[in-house]
Design goal:
Length: about 375
């Protein structure tokens, strides 16, 4: 199977699921590397950064990748069993444009877009996207519409509506179906209804799990059979909390927040104090400020985080690099020139460890996912 993901943490999440399922998994970053993909009985996950691009750039990149994949999949039938488009589970990204490009390349007239992740409390009911949250002094568990969560503060794709048809008003007219799903069983029914050889499936991790026959519930049980302790960073570890929703792990490692002047762009990286790395041999970089939003701000933040990470990796050569947030992970790995990875284990859904070609252990996690159960 070939998976195209719109960010690298989503790609790692899918690679981790396939790895847990026993597949031979390879993760490659977009660009010239992904064009060397060859037909295989295993799973190749192609990570792109299209979610952080402009719509025109995302469309062009999806077309480019799809054009290289078409000869490899021309002999496969049905195509729906061999191509999966991983998208964000909180409706971020240039979804319709990318799906259109993939449909045009494969010649398939229809796409099922299902971003729900019931295993994580993210459901679609009557066309409205809800996220499970714990709120109030009584710690009440509630299903909250997406636009009423922290995703409304996303710097690039703020959730201004929870209604899918409002977020993607032209989807249906372009052959993109957006069904409801509140459970694994709902997802299975959707697959059974549309898996006819004429449909591309796109969406979140729970949909992929059901498509390969493992299921999100069975996936959790599979990981539980081989329990992995909560992440305990070894000596010489660099952790990047690159998402505005990131909360630093309590590991006894010093925390170095980005200075406000660097965050605002009025000062360069030299103002950022990272001397604690030399004393403790590990460091956590964070972005505690949220007073600026917009595309320009997001690009600036991931650029400075990547530049600082490159500087620290060059000086300290960490054994373990841990990154939260897809855009930050992509920018950092591109800055380091690391483009191919071997999956080594899945700690929790979405929390995946990989080995870079130079031997450095890399752990990736989507910014909105928890570290464990």
């Amino acid at each position: 199977m070939i998976v195209i993901a719109d960010d690298i943490t989503g790609a790692a999440e899918i690679a981790g699921i396939a790895f847990t399922h026993g597949a031979d998994v390879r993760l490659v970053c977009g660009g010239p590397t992904c064009c060397r993909v060859t037909a295989t009985n295993g799973t190749t996950v192609i990570a792109t950064d299209t979610r952080s691009m402009s719509e025109a750039e995302a469309l062009a990149e999806t077309r480019r990748i799809a054009s290289h994949l078409s000869p490899l999949t021309s002999h496969l039938s049905p195509l729906t069993s061999h191509i999966f488009k991983k998208t964000d589970s909180a409706l971020r990204g240039h979804v319709v444009a990318e799906l259109q490009a993939l449909m045009a390349s494969t010649g398939l007239p229809r796409c099922v877009y299902l971003p729900a992740n019931p295993s994580k409390g993210r459901i679609i009911r009557n066309g409205v996207y809800y996220i499970k949250e714990v709120r109030g002094e009584k710690q009440e568990v509630r299903k909250v519409p997406l636009a009423e969560t922290d995703f409304s503060f996303d710097p690039e794709f703020p959730a201004k509506t929870s209604v899918l048809s409002e977020r993607f008003p032209d989807a249906e007219a372009k052959g993109i179906i957006m069904p409801d799903a509140e459970s694994e069983e709902d997802i299975r029914k959707v697959i059974q209804q549309y898996d006819d050889g004429k449909t591309i499936f796109a969406g979140a991790a729970d949909l992929f799990s059901e498509m390969i026959g493992i299921g999100c519930g069975r996936l959790k049980k599979s990981i539980a059979k081989h329990p992995i302790p909560i992440i305990q960073a070894p000596d010489n570890t660099l952790i990047l909390c690159g998402s505005t929703q990131s909360k630093p792990l309590e590991l006894g490692i010093p925390i170095s927040p980005i200075p406000r002047a660097v965050y605002d762009g009025s000062s360069n990286l030299d103002l950022w104090d990272t001397t604690a790395y030399e004393q403790q041999h590990s460091l956590i970089l964070t972005i505690p400020h949220t007073h600026r939003t917009g595309k320009e701000v997001a690009v600036h933040l991931r650029r400075v985080m990547a530049e600082m990470a490159k500087r620290l990796v060059s000086n300290h050569r960490p054994d373990h690099l841990i990154i939260e947030g897809g855009a930050t992970a992509w920018a950092t790995l591109q800055a380091l020139g690391w483009t191919e990875f071997q999956i080594t284990r899945q700690i929790a859904p979405g929390v995946v460890q990989m080995s870079a070609t130079n031997g450095t252990l890399v752990t990736l996690k989507p910014g909105s996912y928890p570290w464990g159960w």
